[in-house]
Design brief:
The complex is a heterodimer of chains A (203) and B (268). Chain A is mainly alpha-helical and 203 residues long. Helices cover 75% and strands 0% of the residues of chain A. Chain A has a single domain, classed as Up-down Bundle (Four Helix Bundle (Hemerythrin (Met), subunit A)), CATH 1.20.120. Chain B is mainly α. The chains are: A mainly alpha (203), B mainly alpha (268).
Chain lengths: 203, 268
């Protein structure tokens, strides 16, 4: 997460509901409730996956070898780059540099949008070659976890469009709104990193 | 949310009739129908019929036939089909509060239709399926197995309707600017509708954590759902309690500001 720039910037609404001291939680506090809860929910999936992996180690390893590691790795780079530009865009928005913020959020959106597209290039050949969720427990976990994550990505892209609209049309952009969206996007990124490690890399 | 409306102290003689004059009586009836509805559900589902926790999709045919011929199951189905009438009443208490939110009525209508269609598929269909076995004992085991599958899949795998219903509720809470319900509840509701999506694998596998009685699709979804349901009703209770009398449809004319009259006259 980027540093919090204190001080008033002209043309930016820096006000926050809990703006009492110097240190603050970026964005809306209810978004943090969501982030922590979401991490716990995914945590349950991760623990469940590890448990059943321990029970059928061979099956999970053999199935894992059939995933497309290249697309997985490219998608990881896409999300990380997108997250970087979201952080840079948020910093620009805090500094009141609206043009730079818009530019960076557009780049972040483009990298983020590449994720579901690449996912389709990964899933469709897999499904066509018979690696469906019904194949075995590994593939069920694989499709359910990456599927729920994909829903999060889709929601994140919609939120990013709202941020872009807000930065473009609002007279004094609300920085807490931008931060809330950025927080969500970073969470999507963190979840993917764990998913990538668990599903693609762990041996 | 504006502060609570201070009620004038009532003289003791008027106390007996005062609850009938309470202008929020309709909302309180809808609200209190909910614990009644869920307690009845619990009693009928668990100790009366053992329909819940769900039996295994991989049960042997003799087990399925025994279960489907149980008279308690038929009694449970009749009680629940009667109690189905309470579903619209209990949903009214959400809808009355969503109506106060500064969001498009489309959210309210989506919730309403989602609740209706969801309850038909998720409650009425299973009751018909489970009730048939004991109603006419002559059905062969293949038919009973199909009814068993149909019943449980309709109950646990009826995904889309409730998903859209809770999605509309979550978005309405998050987008609302009147602060009727807390924002974090909106985010919690997002998980609630995601659990509907998480249950999709029940249509694919018959054993393991993703079967209809599985760890992830049933037990984990229940762990999210039960606290959510209780929390929603606590929040709805507070929202009804804090709702200013002037905002009610049946507010006395001297209490009702002109703007409120205009709004309730134009919205459905």
């Amino acid at each position: 997460m980027t540093n919090v720039a204190e001080g008033v910037t002209p043309g930016v609404d820096n006000s926050r509901p809990d703006d009492s001291g110097r240190g603050h939680v970026p964005g809306d506090s209810s978004m943090w409730f969501f982030v922590i809860g979401d991490l716990l929910i995914f945590g349950v999936y991760f623990v469940g996956y590890m448990y059943f992996r321990g029970q059928n180690h061979e099956l999970f390893l053999q199935s894992q070898a059939r995933l497309n590691l290249d697309i997985g790795a490219i998608n990881t780079v896409m999300l990380l780059t997108s997250s970087l530009f979201v952080a840079l865009g948020t910093e620009a928005a805090r500094a009141g540099n609206r043009v730079a913020a818009l530019q960076r959020f557009w780049i972040a959106l483009a990298f983020g949008a590449a994720f579901p597209l690449l996912k389709m290039f990964e899933w469709i050949p897999e499904i066509c070659s018979g690696l469906t969720p019904g194949k075995n427990l590994f593939f069920m976990y694989y499709y359910v976890m990456t599927g729920i994550h994909l829903c999060h990505v889709a929601l994140g892209l919609v939120i990013m469009c709202f941020i872009l609209r807000h930065l473009k049309t609002s007279k004094a952009p609300k920085i807490s709104f931008v931060e809330t969206g950025a927080t969500y996007w970073h969470m999507v990124d963190v979840l993917w990193l764990v998913l990538f490690a668990l599903l693609y890399l762990m041996r | 949310m504006s502060g609570t409306v201070a009620m004038a102290p009532q003289p003791a003689a008027e106390h007996a009739t005062s609850w009938r004059k309470n202008r929020k009586l309709d909302q309180w009836i809808a609200f209190w129908s909910v614990p009644f509805f869920f307690n009845l559900f619990g009693l009928v589902f668990v100790p009366l019929s053992w329909m819940m926790p769900p039996r295994s999709p991989g049960s042997t045919t003799p087990h399925i036939v025994d279960f489907m011929h149980s008279h308690n199951l038929l009694i449970a189905c009749v009680i629940l089909t009667l109690a189905y009438g309470l579903a619209p009443v209990s949903n009214a208490c959400y809808l009355m509060q969503v109506r106060r939110m500064s969001v498009s009525p489309a959210f309210r209508y989506s919730m309403m239709i989602g609740a209706i269609t969801g309850a038909i598929v998720g409650m009425l269909f299973p009751m018909f399926c489970f009730g048939l076995g004991a109603f006419r004992p002559g059905y062969n085991s293949g038919v009973l197995t199909m009814l068993y599958d149909f019943g449980y899949l309709a109950f646990i795998g009826s995904l889309g309707c409730f998903c859209v219903m809770w999605m509309a509720f979550a978005l309405a809470i998050i987008l609302d600017e009147n602060g009727i319900l807390p924002k974090w509840l909106g985010y919690y509701t997002i998980w609630q509708y995601v659990t509907e999506l998480m249950a999709a694998p029940v249509w694919i596998v018959k054993t393991g954590p993703f079967a209809w009685n599985g760890l992830m699709t049933f037990w984990f979804a229940m762990t999210l759902y039960v606290p959510w349901q209780i929390i929603v009703y606590v929040c709805i209770y507070r929202a009804i309690k804090n709702q200013p009398e002037a905002e009610l449809d049946n507010a006395s004319p001297e209490l009702r500001p002109k703007t409120v009259e205009f709004r309730s006259g134009t919205s459905a």
